[in-house]
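quick one
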Amino acid sequence: MARRRPLIAGNWKMFNTGPQAAELASRLRSLVSDVTHVDIMVAPPFTALGIVAEILKGSAIRLGGQNLFWEPEGAYTGEVSARMLKAAGCSHVIIGHSERRQYFGETNASVNWKIKAALLGDLIPVMCVGESDAEREADQTFSVVQQQLEEGIKGLGADEVQGFTIAYEPVWAIGTGKTATEDQAQEVHEFIRARIEAACGNSIANDLRILYGGSVKPGNIAGLMAMDDIDGALVGGASLDAESFAAIVRGSLDA
Ligand code: PEP
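structure w/ phosphoenolpyruvate:
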């Protein structure tokens, strides 16, 4: 059983207009209003942050961005800064999601710059790492994750890593319906914690929340959360349905 307070985070990706996001947020708010032992965060598309922030005001559900740009401001058409996310009501920001790496050319170096920008902007980075299908098949899972971790936190002090959340998301399990087995997920989570311990010391590694992401559903959350080093979930598809997401939040306590 995980020893850290769980975080269940919903990544709404490029789904939902403002009014649709408002409806989803208000349904979720009412479904989880009595939940006190789990932290909850949702990351709507940028265009819906304002309206979702209004709806979630006064609730315990936190708001996150799905990405940011590392510069504080400037002529960077189409980009959004940490300060903009903060002003829109965000406490968290997802960085280095595999879809950003796959479709938008994000690298470990850009992930590192974005993490630094997030920390400077007083946002909690949710740094995503994870291997592709081919990398797992080639037995490279640990080396890929180690490189993503090391390059992602390069130049950061232990006190900065303390503010982090890490999400292990095997790319082959995202949106595919294929979940890593509990043991597959646990062994990578344990490895991530050990790498952070080597870099930042025992107490920071012990407190670090490591989320699992990849086809998390109400039916598999309890088994995942029963593992020692799994402290919550980053949920894509199932977070677009308020009932499913609320069931995952509740299920995270059943472990
Ligand atoms: C994700 O996008 O972070 C994710 C884990 O998606 P899904 O839950 O749909 O696999």
